[in-house]
Amino acid sequence: MSATPPSPPSALSSASSSSLSEAELYAESLHFLEEHERALGMDARSILEQRFGLRLPPDVPNDKALLAGVLVELMRVRQVRSKLGEVNTLEDVVRLIEGSSRVLVLCGAGMSTAVGIPDFRSKGGIYERIRQRYPFLDDPQLLFDIHQFRLDPRPFFELALELLPATDDALRPSVSHCFVAELERRGKLLRCYTQNIDGLERRAGVQRVVFCHGNFDTVTCVRCGWHGALSDAVRECIRAGQVPCCERCRRLQADDEDADVEEVEPVLKPDIVFFGESLSDAFFGQIHDDLEATDLLLVLGTSLQVAPVAKIPTSIRPGVPQILINRELVARARVEFDVELLGDCDVVVAELARRLQWEMASMTPASAYTFHPPHRYLFPGAIPPANEEEEEELPVIDATLPASTSLPQPEHQ
Ligand SMILES: [Zn+2]
């Protein structure tokens, strides 16, 4: 007769997210390892390897306290966020927004494509063009690699031309940006975490925004660390296709005849987070509190492919509704969203604003969409999931407004 193995910690034994705090999760993991050791005579290392299929490097010590921490991380990675049964429809989304005062918005490229900012990953997007222009860069993501930048910043600045508008006013925020601003104006926005570097959230008036990947507002000298606002001169320099240099370093170099010419070029790098760089302090300083505080998550125009932003949905307390507004489903996020509103962001949020009876400027007219029960809607611009076409034809809901009931315009116009 063999001993019954203890149950794994709760987050691993069920598909749903655990409601345990980090400390409780750690205590439970440690307890699990101790119980397992007692019942089956297995050490912590063997448990992780045999029961969870983890391959640990040989130099990781066989230490229960340490490996309990590894187990907690493993749980986080393997966690799947399960859909809430009671949240399914557009009516539910509207009701949730109306009742919420702490909406967390995660946004990405899909929010800015409507105003002409190129997307990175889609067909014809930035990465595809980089591959064509710089075949020597094996991986187009290398353009945003800090080591590659130090080797040769020119490809990055050539690309920056596309991302950096001629003036601050040259780009106007999209309807989706304005929707986030409206959430804030109505006291409903806890925080907007954007992965975009175009700065359009601020242009739309959003104050409670964290630029997870930085933006072009400021620059830092890669040699001396001088940090400051992007000046008109630097903007001009980038727009002229040149690499901007640090004036401070230049002056020092001119004064010092013994200056080491071998030293790294004093390039001014826009404060965009490159691969290989850590996310901003603003992100880490805020995210833990926000994960606890939020009462509704809106994922807006992102496929959640880049960590750690991609991990936010699985890190939020269970029971907090999560809504996806994106052209396509999010495959890798390990999240079952409660309502999936697939389509162009601007079109979807315009319909939400209409139902919320919000007055917003420059609204896209509401348009027809289809409801795919229990919880998916396809709006114009949607990329339907692969098996969607086989489904029976669904009734089209025409939400176009009759001419007489057009939305009121904002007062200042
Ligand atoms: Zn410098």
From TrEMBL:
The active site is at H213 (proton acceptor). Signal peptide: none annotated. Zn(2+) binds at C221, C224, C246, C249. One of its GO terms (molecular function) is NAD+ binding. InterPro entries: DHS-like_NAD/FAD-binding_dom (IPR029035), NAD-dep_sirtuin_deacylases (IPR050134), Sirtuin (IPR003000), Sirtuin_cat_small_dom_sf (IPR026591), Ssirtuin_cat_dom (IPR026590). Keywords: Metal-binding, NAD, Transferase, Zinc. PANTHER family: NAD-DEPENDENT PROTEIN DEACETYLASE SIRTUIN-1, NAD-DEPENDENT PROTEIN DEACYLASE SIRTUIN-5, MITOCHONDRIAL-RELATED. Residues 388-413 are annotated as: Disordered. The keyword 4Fe-4S does not apply. Coiled coil: none annotated. This is Deacetylase sirtuin-type domain-containing protein. Its cofactor is Zn(2+). Residues 83-359 form the Deacetylase sirtuin-type domain. Residues 402-413 have a biased composition (Polar residues). Pfam families: SIR2 (PF02146).
